Predict the structure of ParA family protein.
Amino acid sequence: MKKNPLFVAVSNQKGGVGKSTMLVTLASLLNYSMDKSVAIVDCDSTQRSLFNLRERDMEMVEKNKKYMVLLEEQRLRGCRIYPIRQAKPENARQVAGELAAKADFDIVFIDLPGSMDISGVLQTIFNVDYVLTPIAADNFVMDSSFVFAKSVMKFLENRKNIPLKDVFLFWTKVKKRSNTEVLDNYMALMKKQGLKILDSAIPDLCRYDKELSSRTRTYFRCSLLPPPAGQLKGSGLQELANELIVKFNL
Ligand SMILES: Nc1ncnc2c1ncn2[C@@H]1O[C@H](COP(=O)(O)OP(=O)(O)O)[C@@H](O)[C@H]1O
Ligand SMILES: [Mg+2]
């Protein structure tokens, strides 16, 4: 029987928080290492889109034998490359549904642009099962994330019969020396307002910026291969994936 996948949007009021990076590293970990089948709908039309990342990844694999071998091993294990489809925000949920009709997925992710003002963003949010909102630990971003999550929750209260079940926030780009007291206070405030914050937090690490390259050996952000085990340690990503599997009942 065909699976009904979960539809999960990654969204925030602000760009540059790390939405796309978190989404693609999480998707690759789930799909290539954790036996969960995923797909991505990409609503970003800029150079930083995941669709473009996939193209860069493909080019690097073609140029580099080492990556080609890894990919071939993965294929032989029966692990398939997940699709990344482009869509406008207003069509994202429809495109996600079309993907789900063609193959069995556990999760279809939607990478939304960093603004609710763009046409179709709210409509898409209401029509997914869950929204994931990364919050970077910097005052300005915290405020805008808070406003974003609050307004989605408010809409949620007013509209009972929509697919959206929950909005989960999680900390990202947490600096080693960040003031935990500020974060704790902020967290208490968010919880008081009924917002849900995941236990897992993602540290600020330059590995999140590392793509396949012919110059260096290490990579982390990749749409064709999982984050390498050695790099995964300390990244917070495995903990996030584990927590989401429980929260999403997968
Ligand atoms: N955990 C992290 N630690 C350090 N840098 C990060 C982290 N997550 C994302 N970044 C960097 O932040 C920048 C913005 O990330 P991106 O995923 O494009 O954000 P968004 O999709 O929200 O606009 C990129 O340069 C990315 O490499
Ligand atoms: Mg992005």
In short: The two ends are 17 Å apart (CA to CA).
